[in-house]
Amino acid sequence: MTAPLSREIALRIGLAANDLPGIDAGALISILGAAVGLPMTEEKFANLGMKHFRQAGGEAFIKIPGDQLKAALRILKGDGVEETPEDVSVDPYQDGDMPGSIRVACASNSAEEMDGHFGSCRRFLVYQVSGREARLIDIRSTRDGEDAEDKNKWRASLIADCEVLYVISIGGPAAAKVVRAGIHPIKLLASRQARDILADLQHVLAENPPPWLARVMGQEAKSLTPFLEEMEE
């Protein structure tokens, strides 16, 4: 049984197929299955190189110019995929507006959905969160970091003012760079609405913040309850 494609992956494949003469979406799915295996994920697409992509296409790619193949691969990686008009607006915020709050980043590809992998998400949604309130204060595109020598380090620097990061997936080396930037990464098993995740976090902040978060909030910790265990159950 073929693993279902996420909406984001299906969109990228459809757009990439439009740029490849003689290749429809079904054919491209078969080629990509050979190139990256199943299930297809944004992280796998982010790590797919041109040589491997061309080899997987075999004879189907022989007559397609290299520039078109490169453009299709960029689309598969998320570059040039336009943001949809459902996107949300940023809430007004000035430093000091929310005493005792922390800053949280969510890896995202659309709307206020936490559905991104650290190394391939289109942007980070940045929220200011307290026990009583959560505001979306910034949306930070990752597009400018595509040519960075160390993409993971660049992405970590993009959210270096945040204390917490929520992602669907993050590799060990990337996680190390995030931690070195002073950010606590939390990996969730499935995509969720960012506001729902933050509602859970708000409950923790209001009731019993772990020691390290209490220090960030300028409060005295109430207990030694491990934060990661509580949030990742």
From TrEMBL:
- Entry annotated with the keyword Oxidoreductase: no
Q: Which family does it belong to?
A: Belongs to the NifX/NifY family.
Q: What is the recorded name of this protein?
A: Nitrogen fixation protein NifX
> Which one Pfam family would you cite for this protein?
Nitro_FeMo-Co
Amino-acid biosynthesis: present as a keyword of the record? no
CDD domains per record: NifX (cd00853)
Tell me which species this is from: Cohaesibacter marisflavi
Q: Supply the source organism's classification.
A: Bacteria, Pseudomonadati, Pseudomonadota, Alphaproteobacteria, Hyphomicrobiales
What residues does the Dinitrogenase iron-molybdenum cofactor N-terminal domain cover?
Answer: 5-84
Kindly give the InterPro entries that the UniProt entry links to this protein.
Answer: Di-Nase_FeMo-co_biosynth (IPR003731), DiNase_FeMo-co_biosyn_sf (IPR036105), NafY_N (IPR031763), NafY_N_sf (IPR038127), NifX-like (IPR034169), NifX/NifY_domain (IPR051840)
UniProtKB keywords? Nitrogen fixation
Q: Which residues form the Dinitrogenase iron-molybdenum cofactor biosynthesis domain?
A: 112-202
Top-rank taxon = Bacteria
